[in-house]
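#onboarding

Welcome to the new folks! Below is a worked example of what a typical request in this channel looks like: someone posts a single protein sequence, and someone else replies with the predicted structure as tokens. Don't worry about understanding the tokens yet, we'll cover that in week two.

Example request:
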Amino acid sequence: MDPSLIPFAIAAGAGVSGLVVWLAVRSHRARWQAWEAVGARLGLARVKRGFFKTDALVGDSGGVALVADTYTQSYGESSQTFTRVTADHPGLPLDLQVAKEGLLAGLAKRVWTGEDVQTGDAGFDDHMLLRGPEDHLLAVLDGVTREAVRGRLSEPGVTVKKGQATVEDSGTVRDPRKLEAWILATRDQALALALDPTEVPGRLARNAADELLADVRCRNLAVLATGHPDHPATAPAVAAALTDGDPSVRLVAAWHQRPRTREWPGAVGDEAVLVRLLDHPRTGIQTLACHALRESGSLGSVAPLRALEGGTRDSGVRGHALEAIRAIQGRLGAERAGGLAVLETPPGAAGGLAVSGGPLPAGGLAVSEEAVEEVARQPGSAREPERS
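Example response:
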């Protein structure tokens, strides 16, 4: 380069640098003018947070502490700026986590299945990751709230983690409408999921009575009766559920009725109803049906119990089914009138049903003639067509 041109090159470089700085300052001011206008509408103010942090919009709306800011994440020689809105509410438990199921969330559900709270709404549960106090989550997630929470998780993507509702994305949000939508959605998500602990039992009782889905009513009733047995709302909720139109709800209510008597299965329905509940998709209901048949089941319940024991993958349900079979056996008395015997056999041995007094194949059931006649007389038995 001609030495005489060096001053002009320096001046040109300085001019370009100055233009870049001027444009950056102008963009920063324009962005904050838009942000402050949003803040004025929502009751938030710009707060300077020192040299190492960017300014933020901060304020309170409906009891929710809101913060909207930007931050920069470094990745070695590169960096990325993010826009973030957070909402804090004292009614959000610190261990609460609500997110839409993605790749990582789906993996977490498969690895830590027991930690994921189920509401009983399969269409909701299958797409959500729910962690935290079970009673709190069931209490706040009624039908309307489930739909709203799921919608805000999809757009703009408000998750809850460590008791804080958050939405964030890469880049700097400059559109005031987008920023306002983020702030309102984050606030509403926090309000929807926040609840004073003293209100949890009452909300559970309300959901147990009002929810449209029977499985959701079951879950709320079971958690209420198990976690808050002495709360004033519990006994009336259980009593009301005994008249629910769905037998699975009545089963849960009968199990938790205080005091429970040996006649408790009768509140659910006849034996045929209990047998049908062995095919319920939820293992908790299958388990309670096994308990009920253990108390009141007849010989006609053995075959469906055996089918459940052989067909389920849940070891707990298998154990409860076997206990019910053994209880029926003990109640009727093996090789006595009305009795049966479940015998262990070598693998591959023939199994069958034999009347007492005749030859008994290995692995068979020994049933007296009087027992067969007794079963035929019982309503809802395998020998009597089920009445509608």
